[in-house]
Amino acid sequence: RKGLTDLCDWSREDYEVFLGLASDYKRSLDSTSGRKKDILKGRVVVNLFFEPSTRTKVSFEMAEKLLGADVIDWSSSGSSLSKGETLRDTAWTLKAMGIDGLVVRHGRAGFPLFLQKLLPGVAIINGGDGARSHPTQALLDLLSATEALGSLDGVPVVIAGDVGHSRVARSVARAFSTMGARITFAGPKSLMPADVESLGGVYRPDGLQEVKDAGIVYLLRIQKERQQQEEFFPSTDEYHRYFGASTESIPQGTLIMHPGPINRGVEISSAVADGPNNLILDQVRSGVAARMAILDLCLGGVA
Ligand code: CP
Which residues does the record give as L-aspartate binding sites (predicted)? Predict the structure, then answer.
């Protein structure tokens, strides 16, 4: 692979190759002596984050360092963008320095594709672009879900919440449905995109209490930072009552997933967030392994 801008061209076989590699890397994380590799020795990777991040940014940096890459953390504040340099000139400047890979998060949908066209020869890896896609999130989720259930074939998965603003929902629906899951989107209509069913599942406006048969309920944070002022938004209490995961609304045995960060008391109660039936921290751990696998596939073995 030359990079990872989205999952549009990923087949079931691609996911299976990824899962094999990522689960090996996840096992290696348990050994402090065995987890350090030199697969990316001599490669320079820049992490270019224009939006806030904890999980994606730290786990990419950890994955890059565990694979032996030289890592540069770039941030827009303090850069020459503040002196009027365009993003295009900034990107060409970084390429001229000889970087090999670039992990990017940006609020504009399609920004990683723009960089891929602009910087041939540099592996562009998408750390989240607007509400369009977050491919490495979906891959790490696939790793955790597959490890927990063995297979997603025929598993009912409910993706609940702010689907309209969610790059995670789009990527997770694509990856999980390719691997055989049956996707349902749940949440108030005001938080759904007009074409919600084109994302690969059916839409049910019901509250979580009505969702009885799910193997996984995948919760989304309400992204207030992406909402337009005129959009209708239910109150936090009202939202939690109908669409929040609580010990009352989620049957025992249903697995809870969440990409993080979580908002306790909104989409998830503390009892569920801290309870035994969620994969939230396992997803975080899978994040390091999944990103090691992606970096290996994109940059490992490049002469
Ligand atoms: N899930 C996720 O992308 O989290 P961060 O915003 O903390 O990276």
Answer: 83, 167, 221
Cβ pair 132, 109 in contact under 8 A: yes
Q: Is 167 annotated as a binding residue?
A: yes
Nearest to 25 by CA among 283, 292, 296: 292
Q: What are phi and psi of 128, to 5 degrees?
A: 120, 120
Q: Name the pTM for this structure.
A: 0.95
In angstroms, the CA 217 to CA 157 distance is 6
Instruction: Output the CA 51–ligand 1 centroid distance in Å.
Output: 10
Bridge partners of 186?
160, 204
SS3 63: helix
Q: How many CA atoms lie within 13 A of 158 on its CB side?
A: 25
Instruction: DSSP letter for 41, please.
Output: T
- Complex ipTM > 0.90: yes
| Separation CA 118–CA 88 (nearest Å) | 8
- What does the pLDDT look like over 30-68, one tens digit per residue? 988 889 999 999 999 999 999 999 999 999 999 999 999
Report the chain's C-alpha Rg in angstroms.
19
- CA 196 to centroid of ligand 1, rounded, Å: 23
